[in-house]
Amino acid sequence: MNPSHDSHLWLESLDSEAAAAWVAQQNARTESVLDADPRFAGLRADILAHLRDTRQIPYFAEHAGWLYNFHQDEAHPRGIYRRSTLDAYRAGSQDWQTVLDIDALADVDERDWYLDGVSHCTVMPERALVHLTDGGGDATVAREYDIEARQWLEQGFRFPEGKNHIAWRDPDSAFVCPGWKGAPLTRAGYPREVWLVTRGADGQHGWTQLFAAPEDAMMVAAWRFLDSDGSALDLIEASDGFYRKTYHLLDGALETHALPLPDKAEIEAYIAGDFIVKLAEDWNWRGERYRSGSLLAVSLAGLLGEGPAPQLLQAPQPRLAVAAVETTRSLLLVNLLDNVKSRLLAFAKQDGVWLPRALPVPEGGVVEFADQPWQSDILYYSYSDFLTPGGLYRLDVACGEGECLRQQPAAFDPASYVAEQWQARAPDGEMIPYFVVRRRDAAFDGGAPTLLYGYGGFEVPMLPYYIENFGPHWLAKGGAFVLACIRGGGEFGPRWHQAAQGAKRQVSFDDFLAVAQDLISRKLTSPAKLGIEGGSNGGLLVGAAMAQRPELFGAVVCEVPLLDMLRYTELLAGASWIDEYGDPDDEAERAALAAYSPYHHLRADARYPLALFTTSGSDDRVHPGHARKMAARLLELGHDALFYETNGGGHSGNAGQDDTATELARVLVYLYQRLMD
């Protein structure tokens, strides 16, 4: 395909009647193939019933003794925000108080509202900013809500729809980075300015500009850190790119002061007077060299050259990464990924030095922080693995006492299956780990229908998780599930990510193809029985894999993907990912993008598997034009392709349970048809 001529450019229009007609035609055709399958209705009903099972864990955030949870069911498809007490939760009681009904709100406002999040004011949690999205996109409105009165504050904070960043500073002020229409935005469409909005009488709030970034920046954000002694520290983050940022301290006179951290550093927390900093590049500071991947404790005085040197909390290791950081009233918590399995450390500061100890948590799977109530040493966390249903745990970190509050119901009997970690050798010799979930008695004759899932970007790790729907609807039918931990992801820290960043993107694809070939070489599966799936950056991954090695696969599920890498910066939030992929306006970087851009590498003389492309018309992050044009190009070249575009859900699938069940059932039917029938 000649990159200078794009015959399907018209499909990028979100207002064109012709494009809408094409989408409707493709949707109807896909429904006739998948939704009309006799298995579809039963699958959808089973998945929906599982989603609505009242035994599912209601995860929560604790504020002032109340446990707040967002819940969807048949009576509340958009959901309710509700709360209960810890005693009632422990007892398994359904004693929930409805705080806000999103279905009722949508009816009153006549808007397609979904809840994007609720931000409680830390020191006055009965006041909250409610973030609502129309149709499930990234753009939201924010309204101040009185939890106790169950009503909107007439003269409270209200901010228009946009990709805004809004955070409480205290009960009477908020940091606001406007992303709404008419506000100064970056090239990527994100906020450029930071304002302090102070509550005023009769809704006449005061606005003070604190910071402005240049147009070629990516975005800005601001928030307040509260230390355990009650002191506060205000910080502005200005991102020059997806991974390059500067931090600015706000003083009492509302003046900003840049902190002398390296560009590729992330402030993860602030506790006991120390910033907790994770490095994604080497840092030479005051005569010492701190390596990329390190986790450091750095005092403000130390950054100003007047205090102690940084303390190394965790040194980088080849197969270990810092997954997450949290603070309690007195402790620092670090969640480590050790060969893609979780370990949890608690650090206590004694005589100015942080000392670690291991925490008693389940081993062999993945621990994720669920909540940490302010001014306590309590941690709520979840644990699961491929064959173990998720559990929600409460741990008093200070004394080590813990309990399992809830266990997700088992969706299938795990006795017949095994989850293993295998490795494949990439073309450059690197060993690529991946997980395989299969029947214990798999024959290894190439006959197992196998779904290989991957992502490989933005330093996001692929972690084991309980495959509650794929257990009964895939494993039980003889299928295998594979999760690839390829470079570009965050399984082993910045080194693993940067090995496939920018012009080195092909490394990620090569890793994924190596895993596919390894599965075939081991005779777990064969090309006709091997399917691949990925979404967003993972959609780019499977699109490139299909374009480069179509003979390896019998099925491709490509969800909300990037596929036209020569125009991606011109579409919605695409310009914010230049750090990840490269800039098509730069001649050398454009050549690297053109070398793999899936849309531009489709050929009439190739034999592609029948692929399923899905997207959302309300996706305001990755443009639906990518999936539309890829399907249209395949059809134009004489190949077959399936395409489906939903109206709602946005990029993250922020929709009702009905829609979630429908979309998963459609994918499963497609996989049955392609790999099992």
UniProtKB/TrEMBL annotation:
Record keywords, A-Z: Hydrolase, Protease, Serine protease
Transmembrane segments: none
InterPro entries cross-referenced by the UniProt entry: AB_hydrolase_fold, Pept_S9A_N, Peptidase_S9_cat, Peptidase_S9A, Prolyl_oligopep/macrocyclase
Domain Peptidase S9A N-terminal stretches: 6-174, 324-408
Residues of the Peptidase S9 prolyl oligopeptidase catalytic domain: 473-673
Pfam families, per the entry: Peptidase_S9, Peptidase_S9_N
PANTHER family noted in UniProt: PROLYL ENDOPEPTIDASE
Protein name listed in UniProt: Peptidase S9
Organism: Chromobacterium sphagni
